[in-house]
Amino acid sequence: MSTPCYCIELRAAARKTSAIYDEALAPFGITIAQYSLLRKIDRAKRISLTELASISDLDRSTIGRNAKVLERMGLVQSVSGKDQREALLELSTMGQKVLAESIPAHAAAQAKIEDHLGGPDGAKDLLSRLHSL
Amino acid sequence: MSTPCYCIELRAAARKTSAIYDEALAPFGITIAQYSLLRKIDRAKRISLTELASISDLDRSTIGRNAKVLERMGLVQSVSGKDQREALLELSTMGQKVLAESIPAHAAAQAKIEDHLGGPDGAKDLLSRLHSL
DNA sequence: GCCATATGCGGGTATATACCCGCTCCTATG
DNA sequence: CATAGGAGCGGGTATATACCCGCATATGGC
């Protein structure tokens, strides 16, 4: 057997864990990707698409489309800042509520994954390897 | 700082490595996901969508759509087996050629990733952690 | 103050991915 | 041998993601 493809293995792992988190978050009607965005917007209070894309390490147009979904869901609203080009995102009241409610579910998923990895040390090790990529 | 989300980190790592492999494979007009499918079809000689989905750990409908792209590209052809429901995939002559040509590029990407991970040991370690997920 | 350039976004297009529904075809049970 | 249940697929719909192009706005050099 030759060495497996690191990329394919990573993609599979990402899909698998995403399914676990998505299932945990399903009762709140959001996915792990959406949860992550809500969290980042919440932390920033107000953030532009470009900035959010930057801290998320995602393409700006991707963020734009994902944000549009959150807006349609009523979890996020877009306000304009001084720079008329900018669309600043912030959580709606419902967005704050949904985020707060889903945090425990996310924590449970985190614990589950950590458990699979043999505890905090194994998890830390995985993260460190991922970061060296 | 609280613990980062394992899922988000995995997704980011998968995106990042995918970009590296995609770039390496771009001269041959295929993505890493397509390369992986071509490789699996090649190994099996002939394989059904359901079976391919099974070994790929992907949804059958996903495989069906991805295979359709490969067919449109002329890299794969679908033949029907004894069971009339089955659509057996096999590489076309061009598919074999493209796969053969892109193998070195893929190997180069593998080496690059392995390098990031501090050599074969680090890479093996990452794979082992991913597999325990 | 004006224009060249840079910045911020939206939209088009394409792949990757999943879930669900419905159709077709196969197979085992009575 | 007929039919019920199961297996294999396609297609609808939706999110996630990236790249490129074009439009609007800001800004800096003159």
Overview of this protein structure:
2 copies of one chain form a homodimer. By secondary structure, chain A is mainly alpha-helical. Chain A has a domain at 29-108: Orthogonal Bundle (Arc Repressor Mutant, subunit A), CATH 1.10.10.10. Chain A is 68% helix and 9% strand. The first copy, chain A, is built from 6 helices and 3 strands; from the N terminus they run ααβααββαα. The first copy, chain A, has helices spanning 6-25, 32-44, 49-56, 60-72, 93-116, 120-131; strands at 47-48, 76-80, 87-91. In chain A, strands 1-3-2 form a 3-stranded antiparallel beta sheet. Chain A is globular and about 55 Å long. The model of chain A has no long low-confidence stretch (mean pLDDT 94). Chain A binds chain B through residues 3-18, 20-21, 32-33, 36, 57-58, 106, 109-110, 113-114, 116-118, 122-123, 125-127, 129-133, and chain B through 3-18, 20-21, 32-33, 36, 57-58, 106, 109-110, 113-114, 116-118, 122-123, 125-127, 129-133. The structure holds a DNA duplex (30 and 30 nucleotides).
Q: Helical content of chain A, roughly?
A: 55-70%
CATH superfamily of the domain at 29-108 in chain A: Winged helix-like DNA-binding domain superfamily/Winged helix DNA-binding domain
Strand content of chain A: 5-15%
CATH topology of the domain at 29-108 in chain A: Arc Repressor Mutant, subunit A
> Structural class, judged by helices and strands of chain A?
mainly alpha
Give the spatial strand order of the biggest sheet of chain A. Answer: 1-3-2
The Rg value of chain A, from CA coordinates, equals: 17 Å
Q: Most extensive interface, residues per chain? A: A-B, 41 and 41 residues
Mean pLDDT score of chain A, rounded?
94
End-to-end distance of chain A, in Å?
24 Å
Would you state the CATH class of the domain at 29-108 in chain A?
Mainly Alpha
As residue ranges, the low-confidence spans of chain A are: none
| Tally of DSSP β-strands of chain A | 3
What best-fitting shape of chain A do the alpha-carbon axes yield? globular
CATH architecture of the domain at 29-108 in chain A: Orthogonal Bundle
Number of continuous helical runs of chain A: 6
